[in-house]
Design goal:
Elements (H helix, E strand, L loop, with lengths): L2 H13 L12 H34 L2 H5 L5 H9 L3 H5 L3 H10 L4 H11 L8 H21 L16 H7 L7 H4 L3 H7 L9 H8 L4 E5 L3 E5 L6 H17 L3 H10 L4 H22 L5 H15 L1
Antiparallel strand pairs: 1-2
Helix pairs in contact: 2-8, 2-11, 6-7, 11-13, 12-15, 13-15, 14-15
Length: 308
């Protein structure tokens, strides 16, 4: 923001204060939930970065390890420290491998398949590259081990936010219907529990970036653009809600297919479905009720009959 922008905003606040509405903060419980979910997303992004770095490191000096197991699997966490370099595999005998496989409870058939993979020839890598990359691999594994397990949406000890605890703390809030209404606590954390926070479902859709921006100049020019200025975290979780609903909701898939039939891309159709969900979620948030699929289907049927 430039000094000119700041001055314009300050003048607007001074002269048009009566037209502005004070933003009411959410309760402490809702704010804590928001912080928890934000930290969770940071952990997830950090874990993804470490997995990508570890994959690139193994490709540089030890691609055979990627054929054994995914770097995020329990097998990889046990295999890489035991056999950190290609030379360790070269010195490995079948008896030693079978002993290791039994100690780590690998099925006999799976152990045989992996032994065939491990015995295949591999391209030689300079020794100095192996030494350097092996040290980096071990460092990344330690960081990934520390990061793993801390990226659950809500820790087990904080389930109170989704039961009587949130009601007891704040008196109201969408938390009480989270388990049945949303696949992600982040959604309700972004909504908050301050009364009157959202004026309408259109306000919520615009804030989440699921609807475009229409710009007009005179009577001739009209441009519809993607909405960049929005709550990015809310838009991301609404995309998740829309995507997961394709598998669990009776009306979501037909609506998505209808959007694709109109020529919309996958992302455009998913945003349209997300906007549809936000209209429903706004009613749930406003009335403090859980989502009822059958009730919504009945409402859709009545609306369709009313148009005939």
């Amino acid at each position: 923001m430039t000094q000119f922008d700041a001055r314009v905003l300050a003048d607007f606040l001074r002269t048009d204060q009566a037209h502005l509405r004070a933003l009411q903060p959410s309760s402490e419980a809702a704010q804590e939930l928001k912080l928890l979910t934000e930290d969770c997303q940071r952990h997830i992004r950090q874990q993804t970065r470490l997995v990508n770095q570890l994959t690139a490191t193994l490709k540089a000096y030890y691609p055979r390890a990627l054929e054994v197991a995914e770097v995020t699997s329990a097998l990889a966490r046990e295999f890489l420290p035991a056999y950190p370099t290609p030379e360790a595999l070269t010195a490995l005998t079948e008896r030693q491998w079978q002993r290791w496989a039994r100690a780590h409870r690998l099925p006999e058939a799976r152990a045989g398949e992996l032994w065939a993979v491990l015995r295949q020839p591999h391209l030689p890598v300079p020794a100095h590259v192996v030494r350097a990359k092996a040290r980096l691999m071990q460092a990344l594994m330690e960081q990934l081990r520390a990061c793993r397990g801390r990226s659950r949406p809500v820790p087990e000890g904080d389930r109170r936010f989704f039961s009587h605890g949130c009601r007891r703390r704040s008196g109201r809030g969408p938390c009480r219907s989270v388990n049945t209404a949303s696949p992600a606590p982040t959604l309700w954390a972004r909504l908050g529990d301050a009364p009157g926070r959202w004026e309408s479902f259109r306000h919520l859709q615009a804030h989440a970036g699921t609807v475009p921006v229409t710009k007009r100049s005179g009577k001739q020019q009209r441009v519809v653009q993607f909405r960049f200025a929005c709550d990015k975290a809310l838009r991301s979780v609404v995309d998740q809600v829309a995507y997961l609903s394709l598998l669990s909701s009776a009306w979501a898939r037909p609506y998505y297919d209808q959007q694709r039939a109109r020529g919309h891309s996958h992302r455009q159709a998913l945003r349209a479905l997300g906007a549809k969900w936000l209209k429903i979620i706004f009613i749930m948030w406003q009335r403090q009720v859980p989502y009822d699929e059958q009730y919504h289907l009945a409402t859709m049927t009545r609306q369709q009959l009313g148009r005939r």
